[in-house]
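## retry 2 of 3
previous attempt timed out at serialization; input unchanged, resubmitting
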Amino acid sequence: MRLFLCVLFFVNLSLAQESEKLISYVNPFVGSSNFGTTNPGPIAPRGMVSVSPFNVSGAENLPMEKDSRWLSTPYVHENKFLTGFSHVNLSGVGCPDLGVLIAMPTTGNLETNPAKYRSTYRDEKASVGYYETYLDTYDIKVATTATTRVGISRYSFPAGKANVLLNLGLGLTNEQGARVKRVSDTEIEGMRQVGSFCYYKPEEAYPIYFVAKVSIPTKDQGIWKKPSAYVGEEAQWMGYNGKTRLMKDYHQEVVGDSIGAYFSYDFKQATALELRIGVSYVSIENARENLRLESEGRSFEAIKSATQEAWEKLLSVVRVKGGKPGAKEIFYTALYHTQIHPNTLNDANGDYPAMGNRETLNTVDTRYTVFSLWDTHRNLHPLLSLLYPKQQSNMVKSMLNIYNESGWLPKWELNATETTTMVGDPAGIVIADTYHRGIRDFDVALGFEAMKKSATQLHENPLRPELSSYIEKGYLGADQHESGSVSIVQEYNLADFAIATLAKTLGDMDSYETFLERSHSYRELFDPSFNLLRPKNSNGTWLSPFNPDTGANFVKNPGYIEGNAWQYTFMVPHDINGLIDLMGGSKSFVSQLDKVFSNNQFDMANEPDIAYPYLYNFVEGAAWKTQKRVRTLLDTYYHNKPDGLPGNDDTGTMSAWAVFSMLGIYPVTPGLPLYAITSPSFDEIEIQLDPKYYSNQKLFIRSNNPENNTFIQSIHLNGRQFKGLFISHEQLINGKELNFILQQQPLK
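## retry succeeded, writing output
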């Protein structure tokens, strides 16, 4: 009998583990504090729409208020006043844009000034595909969910007067301009202008179109407009000057900056009303079609369930067991954040705006947007190649389509505009890396052509504007370049290395030799007196005075972008052995790398030094430091709390670092299919590989009691001892089992 009960217990336990919902481990509030710039609003995987609470407007939200500082998120967890729910948002970015189409339910008499209709809120709940809260001022419960292109809100009103507002003037973006028109007793349509990301290229601002529909018809609806106050002689006769105009039952289109629309009701009893907003970057007609195809005839609960099922399918590509308390929550929340951007740009019918001129084109595959490539080329795209290769394939195809449409690969693309934010030429690194990981269902010849174009065209080159100086000297003179003279060289080196590796794979040995040599030009900037990279003047003299600490915490300095000499010197992952030689050998290299951490120069919240913890693997006998530092960084910076990210998520880059690190591998050299190894965070990791791209169906990574054991004693691949602390992508995906024997003490 006891034997039977034991067997029954383990069978039930196994079934419970198989049936557990992985989405239950996701906490959408993570990253909504500590400048993580994520938000808890529901979104479908890689959705165009997310319905985020908008709580960054108004003096009550100081100091985290959008017009009082540089703020790039529609939601901050600590803020207390809410002015609505925005339907088009960015997650984990460093510059303000979007955060528009802001809907707000109210009760009582109609009020269109957000400073007056804002409300405190409580009882927030957020889970994958769902958000709810309670508006104190109005006694309204709000619940929201989303499809790929439609935001759905359910407002539970008390009896009495009620209003649904759609504010087209308020937004996180600094662009203005909108239009709106009544269509019927339940529907309005219009457009909101957005753009100027990072305060660049205002001339390329662009529209987002919408159709909004309420579930209960009303004749009491209209449009409001608040024009700017006129200053001049005639103002004395304009009693309406600068005042809000209510245009009830108005059927013509209204255009302006501070405009909006309302639906008003007088409910005899408590009533639930739904608002559904479909969007498109192409046209109002497509927004209406997106709304129809993705939500018509489907209940709120059915849409919510379908979105959650889509998320569950994505997350179940990786199943983990064991680990420290809270480890699953950290892991699956991070994996969730890697599935937000890049996101869908095309409509349900395949239409999308072409890069630059915004001509309407059509795609069969998904056209992706929001390519924050300075960030994501380092780890996010290698992660997608491993876990979601079809997504990654379509992202590379999107980049190549951008090249066909505009003549250039993207740098920091947003909704078919090139923001030119940050430095370097990162798209080619992603193309080479993807191809080398075995994803080859794209036009690699076109990709190689595009990569070489940005590396050779000397004039009118938006990706490498400093190319002439770079080719002539191998570096940029600090006296001729106001900022980033060292950083830009390193970024170009990484891009040149990617060209070299892809050239070699394609059999172009002349290009391989040329670009490999170019990829080592950072050595011109190595100063042995500091054992660091240092800005150099165009005449070959060192820039003086020089303080290698200057530049941390975003302090501007002439040599580095968002960092200092410590945070950039080791950012040559393609030539670590060369850097070791420059520094005088392994001992000196390790000593300098130790100083980055011991002198508080390591910045977990930014990209240049993000691979530093893994560089100890290049030195025999030092790999235990990688294992120790990675565990310490995970424990220090990643938590199941709103401030549970080290800083800005950078469209999933910080989250991808956590995912890889918890798996026990990291793509230390972008462009090469190679992983540095560290100790995993779980007893067992099961990865379901995509059979379209990989012949092996499953990969298991196992370790003994990682909750208490940090250091690697030995590694076995398919039952055979594995020597070394790097594993190729091919070895990994063709392996069945990667087993770690861990221990508490380091193996020095």
